Amino acid sequence: MTAQILDGSSVATQMLASLRSAIADSVLHPTLATVLVGDDPASHTYVGMKTRRAASVGIATRAVTVPASASTDEVVQVVAALDADPYVHGILVQHPLPAQVDERRVFDTIADRKDVDGVTSASFASMSLNTGGFRGCTPGGILTLLDHFEIPLTGRRAVVVGRSPILGLPMGMLMLARDATVTYCHSRTSDLAHQIRDAEVVIAAAGSPQLVKADWVARDAVVVDAGYHPGGIGDVEPGAAERAGWITPVPGGVGPMTIATLLTHTARAAGVDVTPATDATSRVRSDAGVPGSSSNDR
Ligand SMILES: NC(=O)C1=CN([C@@H]2O[C@H](COP(=O)(O)OP(=O)(O)OC[C@H]3O[C@@H](n4cnc5c(N)ncnc54)[C@H](OP(=O)(O)O)[C@@H]3O)[C@@H](O)[C@H]2O)C=CC1
Ligand SMILES: Nc1nc(=O)c2c([nH]1)NC[C@@H]1CN(c3ccc(C(=O)N[C@@H](CCC(=O)O)C(=O)O)cc3)C=[N+]21
């Protein structure tokens, strides 16, 4: 049996279609500012993808680039100016920033109402405490995807591989808020294979190509591969699809959901009424039904 596909591309396309009509029906002109520090080619590619996708739904973008040699204060000033600009509704500061820049200070300069990427300390607290605000785009997009396919989380053993502040850490907190039993693995975890063999839900977000081996994956597990490496390679070995119950493809899984979530948040930050049906990111519901008991063959 091969896994069923958590098709992020198709869900993202539906979200973008609803977004496009909601924006067209409004008098508002949502604008997203992207801040790119340095000249990392991959980061330019991501920002380019976001810009094109934004244009396709009627969201304007303003791309700000800052030299790779910039200090923390210089980047903070750029973000503060965007905070003060009434024509900018959302701000995305592309991660990672150069080593000399204090990423946390830069993120925390973003005003809460403009934090459409969900990266500030305040947004992290809201995600953890379930008190509103914008979710992180990648973790929020993953949760929307799991909800779309009605994957239950309540009571399930979920393992997150990675604990970065924009992805792994908030992902685990969101699943905890949904009553999963969450375990974090990271670079100092000594028994990664064992942890994954025991997991009913695996979120791979380590940034290490094919780190998660196919034969670690439990039968019928839900596998979300957030890794994204050149050549369409994820953090999970492709053979995992032979064992998992559900799996995200790379490409076509988490990536498109991240962008659709970012753009939905941007429209909402501008005041566009994006109905909950098109966006589960603002909705917190309790899981219907009983968690599936996936049989581990160890
Ligand atoms: N598709 C999308 O929309 C997005 C995809 N990504 C992708 O997700 C991946 C992770 O991104 P990001 O969180 O920003 O990355 P970071 O490099 O910031 O964090 C990686 C995390 O993985 C952990 N880790 C690294 N190596 C191992 C290992 N061998 N075993 C266990 N844990 C490990 C690290 O542990 P420690 O804390 O101990 O250092 C760290 O917590 C990347 O491939 C990135 O490209 C990211 C954002 C969006
Ligand atoms: N502050 C911040 N927020 C981010 O959300 C963020 C970031 N920094 N830094 C970099 C990572 C990476 N990232 C991706 C988004 C979409 C795809 C995506 O759509 N990928 C397509 C592939 C498209 C193609 O290959 O042409 C897919 O997976 O199907 C990939 C990667 C967001 N990131």
UniProtKB/TrEMBL annotation:
Pfam short name (any one): THF_DHG_CYH
Residue ranges of domain Tetrahydrofolate dehydrogenase/cyclohydrolase NAD(P)-binding in the record: 137-270
Top-level division of the source organism's lineage: Bacteria
Residue ranges crossing the lipid bilayer per the database entry: none
Pathway this chain belongs to: One-carbon metabolism; tetrahydrofolate interconversion
Quaternary structure (record): Homodimer.
Family: Belongs to the tetrahydrofolate dehydrogenase/cyclohydrolase family.
Function (record text): Catalyzes the oxidation of 5,10-methylenetetrahydrofolate to 5,10-methenyltetrahydrofolate and then the hydrolysis of 5,10-methenyltetrahydrofolate to 10-formyltetrahydrofolate.
Protein name: Bifunctional protein FolD
Gene that encodes it: folD
